[in-house]
Design brief:
By secondary structure, the chain is an alpha+beta fold. Helices cover 18% and strands 38% of the residues. The chain has an eight-stranded mixed β-sheet.
Length: 654
């Protein structure tokens, strides 16, 4: 509803403009010219020799229709590509129909295999991603060229976007938006420069973006968000030139649509909100506590469910009566409870930075799909539609991103909204941690390591495990925790364990989620004559090793800034001394945190021996969200330092 423009002027058609026919068809191209232009062998499984996307808006009667045509030619270079492209599926989520489809395989000997349309099958909920049309592509072998052309009729959404980058070369990339000449669209490319041209031919406008070649992107690089880094193009409607001199479809219009959807409520809705607030009996000595109280009440009593068959399912009266609504409806309930409780807040709309980073300079609803609530007095956020999160924590995919902050304003008795673009605040890196506290004793015959272990997850780090535990059935909780503890060693015997601060309403910035266990491990100790080798490094668990054969392509992204502190205390058996402890010393730093002027990452460890106790302290830290490619070697050195530490072995000798 929010994304549907109230655009009478958009659909007012000049009297002289008649119904239109499609410009683009699915006829096959001269496929051999693409083979001749790409005869060299590549190291990639496939090459996309042509990747064209056409979006055509047509007037059908007085209605605007939307057709999407995809035209691709793929060269198959190895068995992996055969397995990828010997089948094809078309998502049916927002389609009305597949109006035309032509697919063929052309082999090096000239043999051609055309698609038998009778083999196209509809598959329900394919891989839990909705309904698809699926078909096999016959005759695919190494050296084949596959040509796939199809047109679909879709819901006339006035914006969209396409990725043009994959793990093979892409040539002849094109996006063309075709519309009645009085409807003006705009487009913007990201992560790769496209040439843009806007022209009018007869009664149609053609907005065309092209790029001759796009290199592959390695989407398996560690510490990267490849979806956000791929070459892509976003497009969006801007104005009807018959009625507007300046762009109409803007963030200002989006702000008013959002305001109307969330805050324009009738008298009955207001009464329902006021009754609900009375029933809630909101308590708390400060604003933080009141926000937490309201969040807990709503998230425990009102669910997010589909409302397709519910009339006025996003009306607050119905939400309170039914006990559930859509994500929009639940966000609306939150916003109005805060409003009528006198708690200043802003609705924030933004995007998932792992998929598309918010761009304040190019308006498209693709950047406005996710909703948060921001509280200016506390500078913290709440995720109204994510039941597993509790204020002041939000999903980390919204951190390190900008958003549109909607501010309520009043002029006399009139209320409206304006917006500001601001960064979405995260948390100081030292407030999010994964800490290990380990106390070690040895059995009398030195064949087992007796360990008291505490895993402590604080701040944003707690949400990597706490929600899964909280929502798991009781019988699964024990299995989950034991499996987690056993990641330290395959031969581990768990004597007992307990979990602390597991309630979702426990703020992990104040009460970390703790797993405390007593365990026995045999594999960390080895006999060497009269001495014993102790694999002390393995106590910090398995670590990522960062190596790659080619030059780094993407900046290094992490989910959230954090620290990893480990404190290991070992009771040295009587009559023994420790050799090799000097190998426990690491001191590696890198990067630059512009907010402090200090290094932005590091791995530091040291030890001390007091009497019969060896204490090892490790401090690993990452204080920012993203590291530039230029710092890759420093980043790799810090990451690999942790992996190198796991290989440290000390010796107990008499």
């Amino acid at each position: 509803m929010i994304r549907k423009l109230i655009l009478v002027v958009l659909f007012i058609v000049p009297l002289f403009l008649q119904a239109q026919n499609q410009t683009i068809n699915c006829e096959f191209d001269d496929i051999e010219k693409y083979r001749r232009s790409n005869e060299e062998n590549t190291r990639f499984s496939f090459d996309m020799l042509k990747d064209e996307r056409y979006v055509e808006f047509l007037l059908e009667g007085e209605q605007l229709a939307k057709y999407e045509t995809i035209k691709r030619i793929i060269k198959i270079n190895d068995e992996r590509a055969i397995n990828i492209f010997n089948k094809f599926s078309i998502p049916f989520s927002d389609l009305f129909d597949i109006t035309d489809i032509k697919v063929r395989t052309v082999n090096t000997d000239g043999k051609i295999y055309d698609l038998d349309k009778s083999t196209i099958k509809e598959v329900e909920n394919l891989d839990e991603e909705g309904n698809y049309k699926k078909f096999a592509i016959d005759g695919v072998e190494i050296g084949s060229l596959i040509e796939i052309n199809y047109t679909t009729k879709k819901a006339p959404r006035l914006y969209g976007g396409y990725n043009f980058q994959n793990d093979g070369n892409t040539y002849n990339a094109l996006l063309q938006i075709i519309s009645p000449k009085h409807l003006h669209f705009d487009a913007k490319s990201y992560n790769k420069a496209f040439t843009k041209n806007d022209t009018i031919i007869e009664d149609k406008r053609y907005l065309t973006l092209t790029c001759e070649k796009i290199d592959p992107l390695d989407d398996e690089e560690e510490y990267s968000f490849p979806e956000a880094n791929k070459a892509r193009v976003e497009y969006s409607y801007r104005l009807n030139v018959e009625y507007h001199k300046v762009p109409y479809y803007t963030y200002n219009l989006a702000t008013q649509n959002i305001y109307n959807a969330f805050y324009q409520i009738d008298k009955n809705e207001i009464k329902s909100i006021e009754k609900l607030i009375d029933k809630m009996k909101i308590s708390g000595s400060n604003e933080n506590e009141r926000i937490k109280y309201i969040e807990t009440f709503i998230k425990e009593k009102y669910l997010i469910r589909p409302i397709d068959n519910i009339e006025n399912g996003e009306n607050i009266v119905q939400i309170i009566k039914n006990g559930y609504s859509s994500e929009i409806g639940i966000t609306k309930l939150f916003a109005n409870v805060f409003k009528f409780s006198g708690i200043e807040h802003n609705i924030v709309t933004t995007s998932n930075r792992k998929e598309k980073r918010f761009d304040k300079d190019f308006m498209t609803w693709n950047y406005l799909y996710d909703y948060l609530l921001y509280f200016p007095k506390t500078n913290q956020l709440l995720a109204p539609t994510r039941i597993e999160f509790r204020y002041p924590s939000i999903p980390t995919e919204y951190h390190n991103n900008d958003g549109l902050f909607l501010n309520l304003v009043k002029i006399g008795d009139m209320e409206s909204a304006i917006h500001k673009f601001k960064p979405i605040p995260g948390h100081n890196f030292e407030k999010s941690f994964i800490n290990h506290y380990i106390n070690i004793n040895f059995s009398e015959d030195f064949d087992q390591v007796l360990t008291n272990l505490t895993h402590s997850f604080g701040g944003d780090a707690a949400y990597t495990i706490k929600p899964y535990y909280a929502f798991a059935p009781q019988e699964q909780k024990d299995i989950m925790m034991k499996n987690f503890i056993k990641t330290l060693a395959d031969d581990m015997e768990i004597i007992d364990y307990k979990v602390e601060n597991a309630d979702l309403n426990d703020d992990p910035f104040e009460k970390p989620f703790n797993i405390v266990a007593n365990i026995k491990i045999s594999s960390f100790i080895e006999n060497a004559g009269n001495n014993y080798l102790f694999k002390i490094g393995e106590l910090i668990g398995r670590q990522v090793e960062l190596y790659q054969e080619h030059e780094r392509q993407q900046p290094m992204d992490i989910d959230y800034p954090h620290i990893l502190e480990r404190v290991i205390k070992i009771n040295i058996p009587e009559g023994y001394k420790v050799l090799g402890a000097e190998k426990l010393k690491f001191d590696i730093h890198g990067g630059n945190d512009s907010s402090t002027g200090k290094p932005s990452m590091g791995f530091v460890s040291d030890y001390e021996i007091n009497g019969n106790e060896l204490t090892v302290k490790i401090y690993e830290y990452y204080s920012i969200y993203q590291y530039p490619i230029e710092e890759y070697e420093q980043f790799r050195e810090v990451i690999n330092a942790a992996a190198d530490f796991t290989k440290v072995v000390i010796v107990f000798c008499q």
